[in-house]
Amino acid sequence: MLTGKNLIYPTDFTVEQLEDLFRLTDDIIARPEKYARSCVGKILATMFFEPSTRTRLSFEAAMERLGGKVLGFADPASSSAAKGESIADTIRMISCYADIAVIRHPAEGAAHVAALHSFIPVINAGDGGHQHPTQTLTDLYTIRTKKGRFHDLTIGLCGDLKYGRTVHSLIHAMCRYENIHFVLISPEELKVPDYVIREIEAAPGCSYTLNPDLDDAIRQVDILYMTRIQRERFASQEEYLRLKDSYILDAQKMQNAREDMIVLHPMPIVNEITGAVDEDPRACYFVQAQYGMYVRMALILSLLGGQEGYPTVCGAKMFEKTCVNPRPNGTVHCKNPKCVSNLDLTLPIRVKEGGRVCEYCDATIEP
Ligand code: CP
């Protein structure tokens, strides 16, 4: 039962709940007319503090196709965030107007902050270079459809593994399955964050190798997950220019891949996949993006509690939640400059794993 839950990490849902979600997705694809009025009278709010094509528009299309309505903003300059309003106050207001909210924000942990202050379900549509769980739902559904299993897979992840939030979320999700081997293909400067490596090491069924050579790695993998180099996350433009062409998947490299290998990419593609690869039947990234809308229909339905008759959460519960644990004057704080707690200094410190890890962004806390 997912009613009323938030989706901040892909593992916020159990493996069984994910399978239920994917079965619902199957049914929505097979019988869309059955769901065309499932969300009549309900409103989805989209709060996009960063650009998006697929995530925002597929969420909006999903709600429209369920018979619901959509409000929101695609540019923070048109919201009161431009006047300095906090994430907490913004979501408190959105909670009064909508039944479910989707947030994308450049700060790591921003969606978690929104969920802490929301009266309605919050969906993380990407928080900086941290997590992107609904992309993971799309990726998993594509893997399920194209490979028929979530176990016994060698998955190559290639490109910007440091800032690539879709990579972090996909690894996070796949670590729960049996016999998964990750081949991490990146330059040294763009390798996955330590907290993601710790997750793989802690997962009994998983292992990884670092292999910066795509020509070599492509021979081993069942799935090649390409990513773009995330220009907007670099502190230095020179560093971006130096690394931006680290990997380019072309028809020649595809010749070395297995016949049943599939290529995924969260998109947008910049120049890391040539147009010739689009024609290869192993290239699945366009259908992957298409699945995204159906998976998000299933997600909205599940969080709102089924097809019809669920109670609205607006009104009665308003303003019961308040911010607890005011920010202490101590010396401990998150050292990650991209953490939401360093953007909004009114936020309380929140830690997990015995106080060693920032609850917002997963960075290690240093005294
Ligand atoms: N995959 C993805 O998040 O795409 P958008 O940035 O276009 O939403």
Strand content: 5-15%
CATH class of the largest domain: Alpha Beta
Bound small molecules, by name, code or SMILES, are: phosphoric acid mono(formamide)ester
Q: Quote the distance from N terminus to C terminus.
A: 40 Å
Overall average pLDDT: 92
Point out poorly predicted stretches. 307-318, 321-329
Order of helices and strands: HEHEHEHEHEHEHEHEHHEHHHEE
Write out the strand line-up for the largest beta sheet, numbering strands in chain order.
7-6-5-8-9
CATH level-3 fold name of the largest domain: Rossmann fold
> Per the principal axes of the C-alpha atoms, what is the gross shape?
globular
- How many distinct helices? 13
Q: Largest sheet, if any? A: 5 strands, parallel
Name of the CATH superfamily of the largest domain: Aspartate/ornithine carbamoyltransferase
User: How many DSSP E strands?
Assistant: 11
Q: What oligomeric state is this?
A: single chain
Helical content, roughly?
Answer: 25-40%
Secondary-structure-derived class:
alpha/beta
Radius of gyration: 20 Å
Description:
- It contains 13 helices and 11 strands.
- It is of the alpha/beta class and 367 residues long.
- It has 3 domains: 10-128 and 292-304, Aspartate/ornithine carbamoyltransferase (Rossmann fold), CATH 3.40.50.1370; 133-283, Rossmann fold, CATH 3.40.50.1370; 332-367, no CATH class.
- The strands form 3 sheets. It has a 5-stranded parallel beta sheet with strand order 7-6-5-8-9, covered by helices on one side.
- It starts with 14 loop residues before the first helix and ends in a 9-residue tail after the last strand.
- Residues 52-55, 126, 135, 266-268 line the site of phosphoric acid mono(formamide)ester.
